């Protein structure tokens, strides 16, 4: 496993990290498999584990905290997020000072921890002044309850508003963002990566395999694999990605991966890590074998000619409007 700094900051995170969004905790067998996956990741050198208060109604935080209790606290990095509803009350969601403080305490209680390494605002809250949100997060850093804070899916304008408020109020810095980024969703390349580069902000991206599309398991003209996410996912995110165009792209990328002697998933993860601005790639896994496969992407460098071929296949065109 190789490690990178979190942006310009001193914290070192593993190139491959593990998230808890899709962790299946239904039944003793599923929970034990998830625990084995955490162990396999830790034993392979993964030191960063991501979670959120909204995952499985808080059960994911409890599970992750218990799974990590066997290890020395200084040896791993753990994060959580705040924003989505955790109850029916008017203040049971969002980014108010009240909700942030209460949920940070609840997350620490769930995980049985004294502090979180990273704490993210899951989404932007238009009902709360950004100054209030940034002040609350900065205060949590000052109190030692979180070490670094950041945001997840925020627009460039929202990020710049936060950075402006931090400068004006002389707050602790925004150190990290957690956006979606993969071969078929490259929106952060338009503006966000530049914002992060100029401000020393680390990027820990999620959904690197596009809900499983970039594993190669879904093929054009073939039935959905039994038990795959596309057969049971409630919000059908993966199903919306299974277009003929995307499946044709997967076929062409699979050929590149085969010539390089790696699975398509490894190629997709290594492609994200080609960017120095990426600190870590948050992966999901339902069993230890997937962890082992994903970890193979750390340190794998795609040859320049293959990178050029991949760019032609993806045919990405950033949004640019010429003025004058």
Write the topology of this structure:
Elements: E1 3-5, E2 12-14, E3 16-19, H1 28-43, E4 48-50, H2 59-68, E5 77-82, H3 97-111, E6 116-121, H4 130-142, E7 146-151, H5 156-169, E8 174-177, H6 192-199, E9 202-205, H7 237-241, H8 244-260, H9 264-272, E10 278-283, H10 288-295, H11 304-314
Parallel strand pairs: 3-4, 3-10, 4-5, 5-6, 6-7, 7-8, 8-9, 9-10
Antiparallel strand pairs: 1-2
Helix pairs in contact: 1-2, 1-10, 4-5, 8-11
Descriptive notes:
The chain has 324 residues and is an alpha/beta fold. It has a single domain, classed as TIM Barrel, CATH 3.20.20. The protein has helices at 28-43, 59-68, 97-111, 130-142, 156-169, 192-199, 237-241, 244-260, 264-272, 288-295, 304-314, and strands spanning 3-5, 12-14, 16-19, 48-50, 77-82, 116-121, 146-151, 174-177, 202-205, 278-283. α6 links the parallel β8 and β9. α1 packs across α2 (59-68), α1 runs parallel beside α10 (288-295) and α4 packs across α5 (156-169). It is globular and about 50 Å long.
CATH architecture: Alpha-Beta Barrel
Count of distinct structural domains: 1
Largest sheet: 8 strands, parallel, barrel
CATH topology value: TIM Barrel
Strand content: 5-15%
Low-confidence residue ranges: none
Total number of β-strand segments? 10
Percent in helix: 25-40%
What is the typical, i.e. mean, pLDDT? 92
Order of helices and strands: EEEHEHEHEHEHEHEHHHEHH
The termini sit apart by: 48 Å
Strand order of the largest sheet: 3-4-5-6-7-8-9-10
Number of helices: 11
Query: What form results from the Cα inertia axes?
Result: globular
Structural class: alpha/beta
CATH class placement = Alpha Beta
């Amino acid at each position: 496993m190789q490690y990178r700094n979190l942006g310009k900051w001193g914290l070192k995170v593993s190139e491959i990290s593990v998230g808890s969004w899709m962790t299946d905790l239904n039944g003793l067998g599923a929970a034990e498999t998830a625990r084995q996956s955490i162990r396999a990741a830790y034993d392979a050198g993964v030191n960063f584990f991501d979670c959120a208060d909204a995952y499985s109604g808080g059960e994911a935080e409890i599970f992750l905290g218990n799974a990590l209790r066997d290890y020395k606290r200084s040896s791993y990095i753990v994060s959580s997020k705040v924003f989505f509803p955790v109850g029916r009350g008017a203040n049971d969601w969002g980014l108010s000072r009240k909700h942030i403080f209460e949920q940070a305490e609840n997350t620490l209680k769930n995980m049985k921890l004294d502090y979180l390494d990273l704490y993210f605002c899951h989404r932007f809250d238009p009902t709360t002044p950004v100054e209030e949100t940034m002040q609350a997060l900065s205060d949590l850093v000052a109190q030692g309850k979180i070490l670094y804070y950041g945001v997840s899916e925020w627009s460039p304008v929202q990020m710049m508003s936060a950075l402006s408020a931090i400068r004006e109020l002389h707050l602790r810095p925004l150190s990290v963002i957690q956006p979606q980024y993969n071969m078929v969703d490259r929106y952060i390349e338009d503006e966000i990566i530049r914002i992060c580069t100029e401000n020393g902000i680390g990027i820990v991206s999620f959904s690197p395999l596009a809900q499983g599309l970039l594993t190669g398991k879904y093929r054009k003209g073939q039935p959905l694999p039994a038990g795959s996410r596309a057969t049971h996912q409630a919000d059908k995110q993966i199903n919306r990605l299974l277009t003929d165009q995307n499946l044709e792209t997967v076929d062409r990328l699979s050929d590149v991966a085969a010539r390089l002697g790696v699975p398509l998933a490894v190629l997709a993860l290594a492609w994200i890590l080609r960017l120095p601005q990426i600190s870590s790639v948050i992966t999901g896994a339902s069993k230890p074998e997937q962890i082992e496969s994903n970890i193979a992407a750390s340190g794998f460098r795609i040859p320049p000619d293959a990178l050029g071929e991949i760019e032609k296949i993806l045919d990405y065109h950033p949004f640019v409007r010429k003025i004058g």
